[in-house]
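Hi P.,

Sorry for the delay on this. The queue was packed all week, but I finally got your sequence through. Input first:
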Amino acid sequence: MLQMFSKFFVSVLQVSLSTECVRAIMKMTYCPHCSGVAFAKPCSSYCKNVMKGCLANQADLDSEWRNLADAMLEVVDKLSRPYSVDSVVLSLPKRIAEAILYMQDNLNTFNNKVFQACGSPAQSSKTEDQIKRGRNTAEEVSGTPEAQLEKVLSDVSRMLRDIMQYWVHLPRKLCVDRESGPSEADTCWNGMSVDRYLPEVMGDGLASQINNPEVEIDITKPDMAVRKQIMQLKIMINRLKYAVNGNDVDFQDTSDDISGSGSGMCADDQCSRNPRLMAPNTDKPIVYAYPSENKKVVNGRSSQNLPCVSLYLLSLVTVLFRR
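Then the structure:
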């Protein structure tokens, strides 16, 4: 998905300016110098009309760009909910630490149950100080992943809202540093002389430039490179919506074959809404964390060691899910 975004921006940046646009920018920038009024900045409305005419095709990206931002905000909202996969996975260390702490606090109860089933245990090699250090480590682990994820999602949401109107605000942003201020409305460069600029500011998009007084543009001939990127945005939006609905989506770049009629997703009756969880099959032998020190009696006590280990693990898992 990020690769598709990167190619989208590269393609839009490579769209060349028209000859009429270059002429209008040159007139706005250098004609005041030739007229002996180099001090005069372009009138605000004059600059906006020039930039709106030059970026008319790019402004047509606005509709699908907003839809894409909305789709991404929906993804962020999904990830922010308690049942988010990322939230669950990132909270596992905290849950495991809580389960271990709970088990340590109720160690006598667990020990009595295990001793009844397995008999008296061997002397532990760990000291009380080591057990306390392990407890402190478990407490330090808890609480950090969820806060980090929440901060990342909050930052992403803020940035998405900031760029939602990027293409229609671009002409105004390009004029901020070069246009005159409100107090200079009568002493700015209007394209012909230092005076007030009278024409109204054009709307956004190619169709709104039909009467643009600064940039001559044929609204019946849209830039095909931009139209191709509009289709690319639609494909990205559809794929994000499929992903939000729980469908498997292939986010490989399709800019080379974008003219096809398909969008890269399977039909509703072909997409499985209940994906199966496949457990890997392995023939590797089971290795226990604490192998028996007395190898001569392995055959005699193996039937007792397995229930003991299983009982400990079952107790830990039970506590984990209760929390």
